[in-house]
Amino acid sequence: MKLLVTGGAGYIGSVVAHQLVDAGHDVAILDDLSTGFASNLPERAVFHHLSIHRVADVLTPAAGFDGVLHFAAKIEVAESVADPEKYWHHNIEGSLALLRAARAARTPRLIFSSTGSMYTGDGSTPFDEHAEVRPKNPYAATKATVDMMIAGECGASELGAASLRYFNASGAVVSHGARLGERHEPESHLIPILLQAAAGQRDSFTLFGTDYPTPDGSCIRDYIHVADLATAHLLALQAIRPGEYEVYNLGNGSGYSNRQVLDTVREVTGRDFPVSYADRRPGDPAVCVAASDKAGTRLGWKPQRPDLVDIIGDAWDFHLAVHGD
Q1: Is-catalytic flag, 139?
Q2: Which of 139, 212, 223, 245 is catalytic?
């Protein structure tokens, strides 16, 4: 298929783009490189250095794309709280530009990079696709809004689409010499922050919340290897049907506590570093784990690298190669 990947120079988008190229697809990538990296791009992909708001310049009727995989978005929760208008502009208005272009071009397939952080609940049971959606921040709200926009577009046209709601993408891969892993500025995700502490690039690590109703008192989260996440996109692309919209949660289905992640980072890296403890952060649930049964049943998807040691080991290799020690 001829496919357009928006945000294909970013973390997850680049891993998916590499898998698509390796699977024999004709891939074009649109990215403004505001947070992505040119070094992440597959050599055999056509690159368009453009904002998502200019997607209609690439996604034209004459181009003949068979589908779009949409990753272009701003993703930092704290930034979204401080500057929500930036998130409305990039995530919602950018996605609206994409949907307009896709309708004009009669593009039949769309995969959207969504998030499991839009769900709410006490975490006593894993979140499935029917869990209550109640976003707690502007970032999650933009993803939920775009999900609704896509569902409406599928109901009004022949577009077939799927929203894939992620639970903590982690790890790294090497593809044709390109090292693909997490690189955010500022970094806000747990595993890369811990690796920075292990490498001596942070003075210490702060663990927020030690009194949650969990076995060790710290939050429990579901971590999924980015390679497994990417594979789900290719499977979802094949499963799309005209005029239908599906939501799939993607996670390992079991969680690791913050203390377990901390201990595993120390084990994998062989490094110790100072740790301080602070009160819970507002809005952080005790447990957030995905129920991915639907993806398993409908797509035949099953994580191949669920072990936390493997996930952190790959992330550490990437960190050392890209950031140094």
Answers
A1: yes
A2: 139
